[in-house]
Amino acid sequence: MRREYLSKLEVLDLENNGLMGSVPPIIGTLNHLKSLSLHSNNLNDSLSIEGISSCAGLFKLSDLEELDIRGNGIDGNLPPSFNNLTSLCTLDVSENNFKGTIPSSLFSSLKLLQYISLYHNTFEGSFDFTSLFNLSKLEVFELGGDNKNLKVETENSTSQILLFQLRVFRLSKCVLNEESQVIPSFLSNQYELRVVDLRNNGIIGDIPTWLLVNNSKLESFSLSGNQLRGPLTFELNAKHAYMKHFGISSNLIQGEIPPDIGSILPNLQALNMLGN
Fold first, then answer.
1. Cα 253 to the chain's mean position, in Å?
2. Strand pairing partners for 116?
């Protein structure tokens, strides 16, 4: 690619092309780029060594709205320079080899973010989820995979007002709210959820069927691999027609399955309750 012929380029999709090694340096010179997809290649550069890495130019693309680098072998820490991408709406770095901490300030300047996927990396340390509360446009947040050494706190006292309404919330296989082990309380103020995945987090308490009441279009509900107790109960005359996948396996559930569960969840395709 020659820069002089691409100076007006706004969309670049190099998905699934078998690219290897480093991100092509020329990409960092495409100043009008709005959408960049490099997912499902074999890139193995590091974003951490910003002055040396060929990825460094990415953080100068101030017009970039969509960045998708999922499904590569990119490693290192998530650099604070992500904050330079102030036009960013979509950030997908899932299925890579990122490690280290997730700085709570990482997204502080990215007020337009709608979609964040950090899924299937190997993060550790502590992450304060309340640092995202001021992202008013956020609809999708995904963090999970092999993060057994990552502590995520959603209950830190904060003066910040929760501004977003999520559609997808995936937070699995980490140490969630280490001291209290409670389900994130901010979820009680969410009303547009379609997917909730909180598997393997050690959560205690009752099954939060109130999530189905508050989110009438919820389609997927997965809290398997926790320490939830008590019977499975629904509100009187409940009917959750959008629910397709309901998983509460490997918990401490007792009692009988509600005999009218077929009418409560009339479009259910998968029910997983093994190991209770």
1. 27
2. 91, 141
> Model's pTM, two decimal places?
0.93
Q: Where are the beta strands (DSSP E) in 118-244?
A: 122-123, 125-128, 140-143, 150-153, 168-171, 175-176, 195-197, 204-206, 220-222, 227-230
Share of the chain above pLDDT 70, in %: 94
Q: Measure Cα distances from 134 to 32, 161, 198 in Å.
A: 27, 7, 22
Least confident of 190-194, 206-210, 234-238: 234-238
- Count other Cβ atoms within 10 Å, centred on residue 225: 20
- Nearest alpha-carbon partner for 135 in 78, 99, 90: 90
CA–CA distance, 74 with 56 (Å, rounded to integer)? 13
Is the pLDDT score of 151 beyond 50? Answer: yes
